[in-house]
Amino acid sequence: MVSRVLDATSFYAGVPFSSQEQNFTTPRVFEEIKHIKKNHDAVQALIDLGRLKIIEPEKKFTELVLEKASQTGDLPKLSKGDISVLALCIQLDVELVTDDYTVSNVAKHLNLKVIPIMTKGISKVLESIYYCPACNKVSKKILECPICGSKLKRKSSKRKSITDPISKRAIV
């Protein structure tokens, strides 16, 4: 039997309710979906039946996700729940169920298996860079340009197939 880590979109799509697999999620995701458990006892039933376990990922795995997401430029787009499911997926060495493209991108950079729900999933692994639309400088800073102070924008620096290694690009 396959075990999987579920993000919030998995619950909205009904994945844990139609699956017999052992599923895991984090306390942060559990809080995000609390309106599901409030209106229905379905989530609690999954917990009671042992089909859903809520686990806080260890700090070292969370730090690994933060480092990788920072390298890829995806960190500003990830919620704390997203970071927690990625960390738990690494910790448990299981599949991740999500339709979130940013989460999928970071997961692919971490060599995690991603199972899309209602989409085809990602076909390209991306690295994002931040650039200034005013002076066109590339920067690691997320909020404003270190040269002119303009608000930075995000774009993909390179498109690679998911089997290609990730290239490094020099950033100011």
Report on the architecture of this protein:
This protein is of the alpha/beta class and 172 residues long. The chain folds into two domains: 3-115, Rossmann fold (3-Layer(aba) Sandwich); 124-161. It is 35% helix and 20% strand. The chain contains seven helices and eight strands. It has a five-stranded parallel sheet with strand order 3-2-1-4-5. The chain has a three-stranded antiparallel sheet with strand order 7-6-8, with helices on one face. The chain is elongated, with a radius of gyration of 18 Å. Residues 159-172 have low confidence and may be disordered. This is Endoribonuclease Nob1. Residues 2-105 form the PIN domain. InterPro entries: NOB1, PIN-like_dom_sf, PIN_dom, Ribonuclease_PIN. Belongs to the NOB1 family.
CATH class of the largest domain: Alpha Beta
How would you characterize the largest beta sheet? 5 strands, parallel
Q: Tell me, what's the shape?
A: elongated
Span between N and C termini?
47 Å
Strand content: 15-25%
Structural class: alpha/beta
Number of strands: 8
What CATH architecture of the largest domain would you give?
Answer: 3-Layer(aba) Sandwich
The overall average pLDDT, rounded, is 80
Helix count, DSSP H or I runs of 4 or more residues: 7
Domain PIN: 2-105
GO molecular function: hydrolase activity; metal ion binding; RNA endonuclease activity
Function: Toxic component of a type II toxin-antitoxin (TA) system. Processes pre-16S-rRNA at its 3' end (the D-site) to yield the mature 3' end.
Keywords: Hydrolase, Metal-binding, Nuclease, Toxin-antitoxin system
